[in-house]
Amino acid sequence: MSTTQSAEQIVAGIQGWLQCESPSNFPDGIAAMARIIADYAAAAGLTVELSSLGPATGPLLYATNRAPGDTRPGILILAHMDTVHPVGTLLENPVRIDGDRLYGPGSYDMKAGIYLALTALAGVARPGATQLPVDFLVVPDEETGSHASRAHIERFAANAKYALVCEPARPNGGKCVTARKGTGMLNLNVKGRPAHAGMQHEKGRSAIREMAHQVLALEAMTDYDRGITVSVGTIAGGTVTNTVPALCRCVVDFRVPDMGAAQDVLRRMRELCAVGPDVELDIDVELNRPPMVKTEAAAALLALVQGYADRAGFLLEDAPMTGGGSDANFTSAMGIPTLDGLGADGDGAHTLNEYILVSTLEQRLKFWELLLRELA
User: CA separation (Å) from 172 to 34, 114, 360?
Assistant: First the structure.
């Protein structure tokens, strides 16, 4: 399969992929998207495998140009086929072109990035056509935390010299990403004591009142100077209005710039204590994605990659640390030099105005061709 495609051909290919809706909570849609990608890779002569991660998740897709028996550390490309957009979003954000913008759910985050990288790999599908063997892993659950796919990502990363991630380029210049905050989640449940709100109010122990204290304590852990944010995202409690509420629960998102901050936040959350008497706290907290910290090795890789971008006709700059996590967090934490945000240029991730810039597609494809063929 030739990778020499005009902007019109690239657009047509991406448009076809965007017609398949693949939200994280729709395994059938993800399976259909996986089949489309797998067929495209197989037609190019790549070795392709689809593996089940369970009926509630969707399959894992692996494509490679490795020769049988070639176990050298190579290039690991990471991508995800799931989106945040529910089925039916095509009606609100249909696939269309308006000026330089190609709209459609999942266009920017991140089907266009998959298409560009895989089309480039299709042109070097023959074993030995690249300096290093290339492994392309497309997961079905990145938007929900990569819980089912993380072990597979780390298994492939253990035999990678570099990791390249197809997440979208940062808006307003198409910058790449070398640093991301780590992401974590706290599930906090408060158990109080129910009582009649009118006749025996004094015997009750309000779980909602206690949760109010805990919410303030949690939100107070935010430290903008250190780059730490803590956000109580959802909260629910009580049963009926005339009963002192016995239960309340909340889910908390936190972001941390480095492992020192992560350990500090985890410790403080685990040490939360009840303020009121006769109430219990059930604390379940985890760091879902470790921080992606820019290393000297990642900086050296960026310098190499910027040369390929220059030859492809555009300037590739490094974006400031971003608060969003990705699967790059996992490979970076393992010590693998990792570059993220190498996908399509555009804007509007996770919105109904998501788009990619058509005028950048040919340059981005050329960039991936050079990157995969020459990186050693």
Answer: 30, 21, 12
